[in-house]
TrEMBL record:
InterPro entries associated with the record: 7TM_GPCR_serpentine_rcpt_Srt
Biological source species: Acrobeloides nanus
TM segment ranges: 29-52, 64-83, 103-119
Descriptive protein name: Uncharacterized protein
Annotated keywords: Membrane, Transmembrane, Transmembrane helix
Pfam families to which the protein is assigned, alphabetical: 7TM_GPCR_Srt (PF10321)
Keyword Membrane in record: yes
Length: 152
């Protein structure tokens, strides 16, 4: 299935008057290799700095931030490659998997905070404290309101 915003619509599907895929193909042709190159350079430089040159020691914070960014970059790159490959017709997936592909494309942007919460202890602690404070405060107000209105 090639990317067509009018897919499934009679008289509009595949109509070049309403849809031109040339810009999509040009963008996709350059985006995936550029992203792959940038991510490869980032990984190589980080590895060289951390392990080959012993004078630059990574702190715990730098290591956590590296893991966070690598997890996010790898998952976005894989999802984008599959999405672009399918949209340009290079990588064909079964039509029944198209909704799954689209859902993963949407959700890959929503799971970044989850990656932060998994790796960042101080952020996780602050998020749980904030959540607990708001939940407990809301419950305290309900109990107080119930007691003051129904016991008088």
């Amino acid at each position: 299935m090639n990317f067509d915003p009018w897919y499934g619509e009679k008289n509009l599907e595949g109509n070049p008057e309403y849809h031109d895929a040339q810009l999509l193909h040009i963008n996709s042709f350059f985006t995936v290799p550029i992203l792959a190159g940038c991510y490869a350079i980032l990984c190589i430089v980080t590895t060289v700095n951390a392990f080959i040159f012993k004078h630059s020691i990574m702190t715990n914070l730098q290591r956590v931030m590296l893991y966070q960014s690598m997890c996010i970059c790898v998952e976005i790159f894989i999802t984008a490659t599959v999405y672009v490959g399918n949209a340009t017709g290079i990588l064909a997936i079964p039509e029944m998997l198209a909704p799954v592909e689209h859902a993963t494309w949407i959700l890959v942007h929503a799971d970044t905070p989850i990656v932060y919460l998994i790796f960042n202890r101080s952020l996780r602690k602050a998020a749980f404290e904030w959540t607990n404070n708001h939940l407990l405060k809301r419950n305290r107000n309900r109990i107080h309101n119930f007691i003051t209105t129904h016991m008088m």
